[in-house]
Amino acid sequence: SSKGYAGVVMDNWFYEYLCNGGEALKETDNANASGKYLIFGDYDNLELLQGLDAKGIDFTIVTKGDTYSNDEGLISINPQKEEDYHKLFSEGSYNHILYNWSTENSGRGGDISINDVIDQTMPVVYIAKALAKNKPTDKVRLVVVTRGAQVATKNDKGASLDVSAFWGLDHLIGNENPNITPKTIDLNQTSESGEYDSLVKEVISGNKDEDVALRNGKRYIRVLNSVALGSASGEKKTVNTETPVSLEIGQVGRLDSLYYDEFERKKELAPDEIEIRNYAACLNLKDGLKVIGQ
Q: What global pTM score does this model have?
């Protein structure tokens, strides 16, 4: 609703993401334990692999290599070659995709460039394109794991915000392809004891939470929260039509801070100037962007 024009609180105009504490998962919640998993990761991640194996998960690992190869289930691909992903999905079908390559470069902060971000996110784009082409009717869960990409608690420093691009990309893919169900899970910036047990439980559970941060064994759910801007702080002012006014912004980001500012009419106009009287005016998209600082 838009009520700021009358000095009342404006709501439902702006939103922000919040990470709220979520309910603990039940040990018996293994709704997504069945089906075949394809894991983009590394064999060195023993805690994750052992945790999945203990739950009886049927999984295949895809590691990074120079060229595509599939030696009796030992698969490697070149992460930056789109054709490798098409070969991969043309040879097999999977119910779940667990993308763990996104945790490899966490914590680089200001050392990462825009090209680095593109290089590390493009594999997920290639996965989506390969699924759409080779498995257009398959229902697939796409679970992307990050580390330190979200500020879920007061102790989080946001040292890996560069990989937060996966959080938007994952949902964009889900919006574009209704057969792909996205889920993003963020681990703590530094490794925590038992975090992979929590990760495995989150991955195989049947909960509908799409964005989850795991911190010290607790779950934090990212939700979209409406932000009320508050009542208008300026005092009302009446002007007559004989006094020229300009519409000004009192506070960037607040639509209810717009106000009229009087100015003096020119006593004389230049030869190439004219003066007009406005009877009505409206705010268009460009005006709205100026108000919010764009």
A: 0.73
